[in-house]
Specification:
Bact_solute-bd_prot1; 2 domains; D-Maltodextrin-Binding Protein, domain 2; about 45% helix; single chain; Sugar ABC transporter substrate-binding protein; transport; two-stranded parallel ribbon; globular
C-alpha cells in the first residue's frame, strides 16, 4: 500500500514532537527530583555536646532547608587541629570544615585544601555588620572561609567578691591598676585561698594582648614590646595574687573552675566564655554573680584595644556537596545564623543593634552599663596574623612563653631566643 508524502510527513512530525516532549518531561522530572533529593552534609565540630552553637545552627538550617540534614563529625577540642590536618592530608571529603583559629586556617589555605570563596563573598567583605571579620580571613586578596562568630578578650569579674572587699567594680583599668586590684582582692592561704585574678596559661593572654596594644606584629621576629606585659604577669605571680603558672599547668587548672567556684575574682578570657557561664548557671553548677569589663590597657584614656579571632566555616575542596555546603555557609554567617547564635549566648560575626540587644536580653546575662560597653571595644586586633609560617611561629612563641612563666629563662633571654628562632623560620 502506498503512503502519501503528506501522511508520511505527518507521522514523522508527530513522532519527533512526541520524542521531544518526552525528553522535556524527563528532564523536568529529573530536575525536580534533584532539587528535592535528600542531602546529608558532613561538618567537622569539636565537643559537640557542650558547644551549643553547633546544634543550634544545624537544627535551624535543617528547618529552613528540610531536604538537607547535617552530620557532625565530632572531634575532641584539644585534638581538633591535628585531627583535621591529618584528615585533609589523607584526602578526606568531609563537606564543611570549621576553622577553629586563623593559624590552622592559613595552613589549610596555603596547602590548597579549601575552596576559594572570593567571588561569592566579595559583597560581604565591606558590610559594616561584620565588624571587619572578613579582614582576618584575607590571604593574598582571597577568602577561603566565611566567619560565623567573632570572639575577643574581656575581663570577667566576680561582683560578690568586689562587694565584700568594698571595692568599686572595675572600669577603664590600666595593667598596673589590674595588678594592684588583684593584690587587694587576694584572701586566705592554701586550699581555701581566693586569688585576686586567674591568668590562664595560654601565651596569647600575654603576647597577643601586647601585640594588639602596642600595634606590633607577632610574625615580625621582633618581640621587645612583650617585656612590660611579662613583667606585670610575673609580678602578680610572685606576689601571690594570681596562681603560679607551673601549678596551673601541672594541675590542668581550668579557667571555668577558677572563676565559677569563687577561687578568682578576675579573669581575662574570651567572649565565648559568656555562654559557658550562662550554661553553668542554668544547670545550677554555679551561682556566680558576674560582669565583664574591658581588658586592662597601657593608658587609661578611654580607648579600648583588645585581641580576638573569628571562627569560620570553609568548604573542603574534596567535598561532593559544594552547592549545599555553600548554602549552609551563607546561612550560618549571615543574619539568620547570627540570630540563632545570639540566642544561645554566642557572639556572632554578623552584628546589628537588634542582635546585640537580643544577646544581652538572655536570662543570666549581665545588664549593667559597664558590661555592655565592654562588648564594643574600639579595636580588635587579630590574635595571630594569617601567614604561611603562623603554625611554626606559634609553636616557638609557646615554648618561650612556658620558659618565661616557670622561671626557666629570663624575659630578655627568652625574647632574644624568640627573635632568633622566628627569623630563622621565616628565612627557610
Amino acid at each position: 500500500m502506498k503512503i502519501s508524502k503528506k501522511l508520511m510527513t505527518l507521522v514523522l512530525t508527530t513522532a519527533i514532537i512526541g520524542t521531544t516532549l518526552a525528553g522535556c518531561s524527563s528532564k523536568t522530572s529529573s530536575t525536580q527530583k534533584s532539587s528535592s533529593d535528600k542531602i546529608q552534609l558532613s561538618v567537622t565540630t569539636w565537643n559537640y555536646d557542650t558547644t551549643p552553637e553547633f546544634k543550634a545552627l544545624f537544627e535551624a538550617f535543617h528547618k529552613a532547608n528540610p531536604n538537607i540534614t547535617i552530620k557532625p563529625i565530632d572531634i575532641d577540642a584539644s585534638q581538633y587541629d591535628n585531627k583535621v590536618t591529618t584528615m585533609l592530608a589523607g584526602g578526606d571529603s568531609t563537606d564543611v570544615l570549621t576553622m577553629k583559629n586563623t593559624t590552622s586556617y592559613s595552613g589549610y589555605a596555603f596547602r590548597g585544601q579549601l575552596e576559594d570563596l572570593t567571588t561569592h563573598v566579595k559583597p560581604n567583605v565591606a558590610n559594616a555588620n561584620y565588624k571587619g571579620a572578613y579582614d582576618y580571613l584575607k590571604i593574598d586578596d582571597k577568602y577561603y572561609a566565611q566567619p560565623y562568630r567573632t570572639d575577643f578578650f574581656v575581663l570577667y569579674y566576680n561582683k560578690t567578691m568586689f562587694d565584700k572587699a568594698k571595692i568599686a567594680y572595675p572600669e577603664n583599668l590600666t595593667w598596673d591598676q589590674y595588678a594592684t586590684l588583684a593584690q587587694k582582692l587576694t584572701v586566705g592561704t592554701g586550699s581555701t585561698k581566693q586569688y585576686g585574678a586567674y591568668n590562664h596559661t595560654w601565651r596569647s593572654i600575654v603576647q597577643a594582648t601586647a601585640s594588639a596594644q602596642t600595634n606590633s606584629d607577632l610574625v615580625s621576629g621582633k618581640y621587645d614590646f612583650m617585656k612590660p606585659y611579662y613583667e606585670t604577669f610575673l609580678k602578680m605571680q610572685k606576689s601571690g595574687s594570681s596562681m603560679e603558672y607551673g601549678t596551673a599547668k601541672s594541675t590542668s587548672s581550668t579557667y571555668a573552675s577558677q572563676f565559677e567556684t569563687g577561687k578568682a575574682a578576675m579573669l581575662p578570657m574570651g567572649t565565648w566564655y559568656m555562654a559557658g557561664v550562662l550554661n553553668s548557671k542554668k544547670k545550677g553548677a554555679t551561682d556566680v554573680n558576674w560582669g565583664i569589663t574591658a581588658m586592662p590597657q597601657n593608658e587609661a584614656n578611654g580607648k579600648v584595644t583588645t585581641f580576638g579571632s573569628p571562627t569560620a566555616f570553609a568548604i573542603n575542596k574534596n567535598s561532593k556537596q559544594k552547592e549545599a555546603a555553600q548554602k549552609f555557609l551563607d546561612f550560618a554567617s549571615g543574619e539568620k545564623g547570627a540570630t540563632v547564635l545570639a540566642s544561645v549566648g554566642v557572639v556572632p560575626a554578623y552584628r546589628t543593634d537588634v542582635i546585640n540587644k537580643s544577646y544581652f536580653d538572655l536570662k543570666g546575662m549581665p545588664t549593667d552599663a559597664i558590661s555592655k560597653k565592654a562588648f564594643s571595644p574600639d579595636k580588635i586586633a587579630l590574635e595571630m596574623p594569617v601567614n604561611k609560617h603562623s603554625a611554626a611561629i606559634d609553636q616557638i612563641l609557646t615554648e618561650e612563653h612556658d620558659l618565661i612563666m616557670v622561671g626557666g629563662s629570663t624575659i630578655d633571654k627568652a625574647i632574644a631566643s624568640m627573635s632568633k628562632r622566628v627569623l630563622q623560620e621565616i628565612k627557610e
